[in-house]
Every structure is written in C-alpha cells, then in structure tokens.
Design a protein that fits this description.
The chain has 5 helices and 4 strands, in the order H-E-E-H-H-H-E-E-H. With 170 residues, it is an alpha+beta fold. The protein has a single domain, classed as Butyryl-CoA Dehydrogenase, subunit A, domain 3 (Up-down Bundle). The protein has a 4-stranded antiparallel beta sheet. The longest helix has 33 residues. It is elongated, with a radius of gyration of 20 Å. The two termini are 15 Å apart.
Amino acid sequence: MAKKKSGSKVGLIALLVLVVMLVLAIVGICIDWINTTVTVLGNSTTEGTKLSELFDTFDGLDTELAGSFKAMASFAILTVILAGATTVLAGICKVLGWKLFRFILVIVAIVCVVCGVVSIITSFTFCDKLGGGSIGDLFSGENAPAAGAWLTAIGGVLAGLAGVFAAVKN
C-alpha cells in the first residue's frame, strides 16, 4: 500500500511539472522572440520583437526568409500544442490509468521533445537568414533568439520528458 502512495505522489509531481512547463511554453510565445542588437559608433541598442509582430511583418510574403519564418513559427506553435496535449494526456492517465492513453502519452511526449529542439534550431536559422552586418567600427547589427524562443523550447522539451516520466510512473 505504501508503494502505491509513493507512485501516486510521483505521478502528481510529474503532472505539476507538466503544467508548469506548459505555462513556460505559452509565456515564451507571448514575449520577445528575436533580439536585434544595433551598434552605432560603439553605442549598442537591443530591441526585442515578439512572434506576433513577426507574423504581421511576414504575413503574405513568399520569400525564402518568409518560408524560414513560417517553419520557425510552425514548430513554436506545435511545441505549445504538444505540451498542452502531453499535459492533458498525463492527467487522463493519472485519473483513468488506461494503458492505451499511456502509449499515446509517450508518443506525444517524444514528439513534443523533438518539436521543442527543432523550434530553437529553426529560430537560430531564421536569425541567421535575417542577417546582420557591419561597416567597420561605425555600424553593426546582429539578430539572435530572445527569451521567448528559449522558454518555448525549454518548456516543450521538459514537458515531453515529464510526460514520458509520468507515463512510466503511472
């Protein structure tokens, strides 16, 4: 009987971790996704751009850069959706304990991990395609993934890992 209680607590902790990681991934979508740093005569200024602002910028364009943006945004949104699905499936497994849902949970959780990793990779690729440059010491510009890209990727990867753990421990 004590073993059952211990397993129950572990499953609840895994479910709590899943909820926190889902919130982390959602927050990542809502905050700055790309940081643009511009240096003019040694003075640097960094400006963040949210994913929603990037949607407004690249809406309707059909260029290589727009394609790179669409891939990045697709994996970011898919990561959040899969983190949510992992959380819901883990809750169903916790309450009902059906083996079919455990199997589905493991599959969705693994895909969530993969999408989280691909999300940050496509963010770096998009930043590289956005480009940067410099004119000697007078001017330089650089783009890099901001906190939102990292939070979404980390939230997705850890949600997937917690989902696999929840399936194994239920």
